[in-house]
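Continued from yesterday's entry.
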Amino acid sequence: MFTQVGVSDQGQNEIEKGIFAYAPIVEQQDRCNTLINSCRPDRILTIGGDCSVELAPVSYLNSRYQKDLAVIWFDSHGDLNIPEESLSGHFHGMPLRVLLGEGDRRIVDACFSTLFPDQVILAGARDFDAAEKEFVKQKRIQHWSVDEMTNELKSLAGWIKKQGFTKLYIHIDLDVMDPKEFPYVGYPVENGLPYEALLGVISTLKNSFEIVGMSAVEFSLHKDLWHKGDSSVRMVEKILKTAGFL
């Protein structure tokens, strides 16, 4: 069953507490929490929106499985900013930091739970702000490069097994892929993960763990690429099918 969670147009251009569109973000988070509480699912698939939509599903599933959850963050960016350090104030650069328990208190406290740093694997990230790099180093967060995942498809699954996790949440910001293959995003970053390599890593993870949650976010089809809309959707569909969610 798919349920659409809307977001208010009011306050989209306003900055509050150092965050653009703060009020709509808080409102959407509350709506997602209410929806999840009403059905208490064992698995969640999130499609659409930006990375901020991950707060409710990830924090809920982390609570549901009592932190027996590795969160693989396929993304070209770190998403580890806090309002005081963000260069833009855009919240889609902050959600993973919130899920780790830091950032705006109203938003952090509305999460079902928070993650430990050793539950998080950055996969394919290659565009960090300076403060994000320092945070990754300080917290010793695992970071798997594009080359590592392309050349050693099974290495990520092997590392997760050694940590003892049995369940996965796979976050996919579509800009993790190389823009030459998948340009249908708002913030492309060069030298990304090849599409077939992404499918290979996901297939290996599916064969090794129970994937209890997944997302495909940050899809943006520019006007000059509308004629390729069907092919881009089919690419996303194949990603979700490979993970067993369609």
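--- second protein ---
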Amino acid sequence: MTTAAILASCFNQKQAVLFDMDGTILNTEPLHAKALQATLSSLGLPDYSASDLDQTYAGKSDLEVYQDLKDKLKATTMADFINLKNQQFIWALNELPELEVAKLHAPGIHSLLSLLKGHKIKLGLVSASERDVIDTLLKKSGLLPFFDITISRTDTTNSKPHPDPYLSAMTQLQVSCDQVLIFEDSVTGLQAAKQSGASVIQVDLHAPLTPTQRQSNKRISNFYNLQ
């Protein structure tokens, strides 16, 4: 398929594409689980394995995780929990060798971002993570230069599942919802994306897709599906 055909068939002349980060363009869920395990252990809860935490909380925001565990966290505030978990995540990320960091990339994402950037399509990243996590992860992964804007959890009054983060990104990029395509993976993220009025494609990096799902162009398991 030619470049022009790819852009016409997959992006339908969209002027901007917005991406979620964790679980969408970067497979960071195991790293988040490792950071969560270290956080809980430091707070006196050592009996959680990283694999169990990954299965339980993959795709959930730190706010959702805290709400689920707060009865066991006793006097730990949400802000302290999130700060500690972010510190553990950044430490774990910085400990990864360069080759392991490259493996975090969702299959096909680098070439897709290069294609879109080369054709002057505006690119934004909209995440429920904090600013320090976003900046560190995008710099470490080498994806930061592709994005015109990035939105963190604290950049809007309401975070996902509210559409505010996506609407803020559209405002900053000076596009309307009908000119935007969004890639998301989590339940709360998909809810926010759909309520923004934009076109949405669900990304599932872990579950194999049926032929019907592949043909629907509403759900993908990697970004090579679009190239």
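Residues 29-100 form one domain. Residues 127 and 152 are 5 Å apart (CA to CA). Will compare against the first tomorrow.
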